[in-house]
Amino acid sequence: MTEATESNAVLIGKKPIMNYVLACITFFHGGAKEVSIKARGRAISRAIDVAEVIRHRFLPDAKIKSISIGTDQLLPQEEGNSPTNVSTINITLTR
Amino acid sequence: MTEATESNAVLIGKKPIMNYVLACITFFHGGAKEVSIKARGRAISRAIDVAEVIRHRFLPDAKIKSISIGTDQLLPQEEGNSPTNVSTINITLTR
Q1: What is the mean pLDDT of residues B71-88?
Q2: Are A68 and A55 in contact (CB under 8 A)?
Q3: Of A44, A51, A71, which has the smallest distance from its Cβ to B45's Cβ?
Q4: Do A87 and B45 touch (CB under 8 A)?
Q5: Burial of A9 by CB count in 10 Å (0-12 exposed, 13-18 middle, 19+ buried)?
Q6: Which of A13, B47, B62, B67 has the fewest CB within 10 Å, making it most exposed?
Q7: What 3-state class would DSSP assign to A85?
Q8: ipTM over 0.90
């Protein structure tokens, strides 16, 4: 992964979708060629919402460069519990 | 999209993840070369869970052929309401 990709990453949480849309658009308006939208677990569907809103409503010239999925292992909060797995997604948009 | 892809599709709903994992594995054991995992809205994160469990636990030789995202427009249930958009994902696994 290039340095540019890593530095323009938006991690999706529980805030309104438009907050993340605005964060991505700000990166692009600042001259970024690529922006990565990252999410884990239940936030994954929101990551796709963000990518779709950007593509269809704000930046029609933005394209999906790549979509990758993976698994993160979460260590247990209390000792004795086993680690749990959580799915991840990384959507890279480019202009 | 090829005919084979369309005929081996698993649509993710609200059942336990292992139900969908089993459905995909059954397709592969029946000779399918490709299986598509499709989901909309909040079920999207579960679609990725299904793909990850298949790849890491049951079929280590299964690979992700493609991941695509999109938007479906849902017509309103009552007249006068505007249509709403829902994000979609399509993960195609291949062996």
Answers
A1: 88
A2: no
A3: A44
A4: yes
A5: middle
A6: A13
A7: strand
A8: no
> Over the stretch A64-91, which tens digit does the pLDDT of each residue have?
999 999 999 988 888 788 889 999 999 9
pLDDT at residue B2 tops 80: no
Beta bridge partners of residue A72, listed in sequence order: A86
B73 near A CB under 8 A: no
- B80, HSE (Cβ side, Cα atoms, 13 Å): 1
Would you say B71 and B43 are in contact if contact means Cβ atoms under 8 Å apart? Answer: no
Question: What is the rounded distance in angstroms from the CA atom of residue B44 to the CA atom of residue A95?
Answer: 25
Q: Nearest residue of A to residue B89 by CA position? A: A48
Residue B76 has pLDDT above 70, yes or no: yes
The pLDDT score that the predictor gives to residue A12 is 98
pTM for this predicted structure: 0.88
* Strand A34-40 relative to strand A9-11, pairing: parallel
Q: Does B43 touch chain A (CB under 8 A)?
A: yes
Q: Average model confidence (pLDDT) for chain A?
A: 91
What residues of B are in contact with residue A64 (Cβ under 8 Å)?
69
B24, two tokens? 């995909």
